[in-house]
Amino acid sequence: MLDLAHTLTYLRKQHQLTQKDLAQFLDVSTAAISKWETGQSFPDITTLPKLASYFNISIDKLLGYEPQLSKENIQAIYKKLSQDFKTEPFNDVILKIEKLEKQYYSCHPLLVQLSVLLLNYLHLAQDRFSEIALLIEKLTERTHLESQDPKLVQLAISIHAQVATILQQPEKVLQLLGTQVSPYAGNDIILANAYLMLENRDAAEETFQISLYQGVISNMSVFSNYMQVQEQSLFEESVLRGEEMIRIFDLKNLHFSCCLNFYLSAAQRYSQLDQQDACLRMLTNYVETVINIPKPMELHGDDFFTKIDQWIQRELDLGPSIPSDEDTIRQKMIAGISENPYFEKYREHPTLLALIDSISKEAN
What we know:
Helices cover 69% and strands 0% of the residues. The protein is an all-alpha fold. It comes from Kurthia zopfii.
């Protein structure tokens, strides 16, 4: 929102001017200045450059308009809107987002985070699902085409591709991401070794940890998705290796989300193969992980990844905060087994009923 009234009042008093002094300089009445400062009227557009020049500031600053928001401001906006989705009608929150989009149309970090927010609450859209998906595409496309920040552009492309996947547009995904996986160049290792050559051991260690941390989480995501298309023998080997990674890196505490995705994916595949006991074992692991999620829900390091916390705070747009509010996440966790069509055939099984009861009590 433009805030000329407060800005003008502040600047005038800061320069120890009366309304009459300013009126004489601008060749307007004192009453006009008074109305500008109380918000009853607005200066003529030709007067704005003269006012800005007089106080030696930009017109944007005079109007109280900030086209770019700080990382902290973006985080605050994200958290507020995330809470609003819990307490206000969906359409009202969308109106707020659309207003922010217009107000900060060139603040690409905000646009990307608004698209992340919408992606995480897309399940609430109901009959506006396609419309909101298109809004996400619009936000990401603008960043993709206009931003000069390569990392931000790549994030926007990734979000756009996720939406295209949800909308079942595989050709669009290939258009956005390309048709081949680029070979790993090892720039992170080169960077870490450069820090060592400069005798900056802390920076080198942080770089190694970041690379390993991201690799572990990424590989768990690959397991979760790859298992759905594997032949049975290879699938069962993936389960063994994935469970070992969870154990070795203590992922239930370090990154519960990748564990939940893995267990749920494995359970679904076992259900497809009609292996009831194995399916229920994976669902038991799923529920136990949910019940023991560290509080508060946020990204963090541990005794092995000792440098990760500072990187998360510094580099991630939302810092350690999760992209949805905790209540929404817990409801999705319950729905993951209670409303999952893969487990319909086990719906009356005592073990599944007990698991659903346990996870529901934890969420409430």
